[in-house]
């Protein structure tokens, strides 16, 4: 059963994960080739896995960006994996991700490119890794959660903001 104002791309597990994250927590959206299960195996310290099989990252970013403020207290609230030396990076991936985020949070797609193994370490320190069906090479991205301000809508007669 869906919810009003929540994209059907946001699964119940992803919605709970986003709500439980605090300021400064990170979430990784990983492509289909990313070693998500290796980083998030039960019994190992590290992030939880949220499955989003069959979904591309850009539509998920658009849906999440409506619910999840990016951190304004860090220089780069967005991190993406850099191409391995000798490999080519498809610029359209960053463009798709940027378009998705900027549609909901203009001016907030401030990206840092991170070396492959350093990116894995950052993903290991995330609150969660969302394992997607993204097939684009280097289609991985980390978002840092910011502070949720009290909007006019939540302070007045509009919908209340709840956390789990």
From TrEMBL:
Decide whether keyword Glycoprotein is in the record: no
What is the E.C. number?
5.1.3.29
- The answer to keyword Isomerase applying to this record is yes
User: What reaction(s) does this enzyme catalyze?
Assistant: alpha-L-fucose = beta-L-fucose
Please list the GO terms describing molecular function. fucose binding; L-fucose mutarotase activity
* Principal EC category: isomerase
- Entry-linked InterPro entries: RbsD-like_sf, RbsD/FucU_mutarotase, RbsD_FucU
Which top-rank group of organisms is this from? Eukaryota
Q: Name one Pfam family in it.
A: RbsD_FucU
In Swiss-Prot or TrEMBL terms, this protein is called: L-fucose mutarotase
